[in-house]
Amino acid sequence: MTTDSPFRIESSWRRLRRSATAVLLSSSLLAPGLPQAQPAGIPSMGAASSTELSPALETLLGKAIMEQGRRDPTYINDPDVRQYLAAMGAKLSGQASGLGQPVQVFGVRDPQINAFALPGGYVGVNSGLVVQSESESELASVVAHEIAHVAQRHIARGMTQGSQSNTIMMASIAAALLAAMAGSGDLAMGVAAFGQAAAIDQQLGFSRQAEQEADRLGLEMMRKAGFDPRGMARMFGRLSSVSRLNESMSGGGYHSTHPLSVQRMSDIENRVRELPQQSREDGGDYLFVRAKLRVIQAKDARSQREVRETLQHEASTRSGAAQAAAWYGLAYAELVRGELDAADKALAQASVVKSPHMAQMRIQLALRRGADAVQMARDAWRDWPQSQGVALLLAEALQKAGKDGEGVAFLEERVGQWPEEPQFHERLAQGYERLGEAVKARSTMATYYEMVGALPTAVQQLRQARNLTDDFYLQSELDTRIRELRERQDMERELLKRFKT
């Protein structure tokens, strides 16, 4: 099979965000602002010569960026992908000494092999990195490298270096964020803000010393977390080969954002040789998530056909969990196409492996056919009580079966189990609405919008909830939440104005 290299594909949203950022960049240069007084409630940036962004200010900036990022069309909101990447991030960051902030790893639909760190401890992983990795340790090596940049505060330090290019970069990010906030969720401005922030590491141009420091710390994180350190050496070799194949092409890629010098590669190879052998068999979650991301990443008919051909080849040549994951990927691809019979046949081939991913596929197929999937979902939840994907499907099955009271009770427990996952709040709000509890529905939906960064919409939901009740105490609670959200909006605007100027 002959295909174009996935590293050469530039998606339309990337072009959009780059052009929108260019417009914002030029506007920030043409209309510089005046110095602002220190707003109440915002941490001090320190002296103009400060060598790094304060942790509190970095956290605020990171949250403002991610509020747009979660609404970006390339942000991957699939529960399996989210949970897998978050777990890997937690496992690696748990081995990072001196990490002063939590790390949150998320996925982005982009075929390029790349990952990036944002202010505030956020690490983005392109789908192309997962798809093109050949082992979980290879993937972990890049994620660990990015977490090391976070731990060493390379982003925070680089953003406040006194160069003109860094000042322009900060101004353009702030301008994009302000425009998105002012435009009540204008997609182009939000895309520009997130895209510009995602390119921070490329614009900062980390020093060789910083890159080597991140390599060494990342390697140690991998080793302590139980991954095979040789995965970093293998991934470096693959990235170097990819960069040579595409060196005449414009655009990003991990080599362009984190240049792989001969010195860096030799240093890691030497360090890996000195370490004891640490073989590791890839887990099923990695294989199934990689198969799923192949399908999620393919958006046009040609790429979707090529993905199916690749998965069919692997299904006929691999064995064990790798073969099952290929059949699962084929079933998922057919489900996305609406070919339910073909999805059934592919899933039957993978039945030798028991996993929450397989169970979810069976439940989804039942739901698409309008069958009663409640017992199937209950059985899956009994077997995998830590799977967010299974939990969401059980909630959906209960709702479609008219078991709204049971569904709400189940979701209330899941919100307690995973309080940071927006989808459970959204589903719970729908359940309250079906039960006729309009105030709870809007209040819970406000929480969902707050978590995904749509603060104006969250305020609207809370105001609607307030208008639906005569309970004085409940109105007071809602008034407090409205005030807090508006204060948060004002604080973020003032923060961004300062960065813009």
Automatic annotation (TrEMBL):
<dbReference type="InterPro" id="IPR001915">
    <property type="entry name" value="Peptidase_M48"/>
</dbReference>
<keyword id="KW-0862">Zinc</keyword>
<dbReference type="GO" id="GO:0004222">
    <property type="term" value="F:metalloendopeptidase activity"/>
</dbReference>
<protein>
    <submittedName>
        <fullName>Putative Zn-dependent protease</fullName>
    </submittedName>
</protein>
<dbReference type="GO" id="GO:0051603">
    <property type="term" value="P:proteolysis involved in protein catabolic process"/>
</dbReference>
<feature type="domain" description="Peptidase M48">
    <location>
        <begin position="83"/>
        <end position="271"/>
    </location>
</feature>
<dbReference type="InterPro" id="IPR011990">
    <property type="entry name" value="TPR-like_helical_dom_sf"/>
</dbReference>
<keyword id="KW-0645">Protease</keyword>
<keyword id="KW-0479">Metal-binding</keyword>
<dbReference type="GO" id="GO:0016020">
    <property type="term" value="C:membrane"/>
</dbReference>
<dbReference type="GO" id="GO:0046872">
    <property type="term" value="F:metal ion binding"/>
</dbReference>
<keyword id="KW-0378">Hydrolase</keyword>
<dbReference type="Pfam" id="PF01435">
    <property type="entry name" value="Peptidase_M48"/>
</dbReference>
<dbReference type="InterPro" id="IPR051156">
    <property type="entry name" value="Mito/Outer_Membr_Metalloprot"/>
</dbReference>
<keyword id="KW-0482">Metalloprotease</keyword>
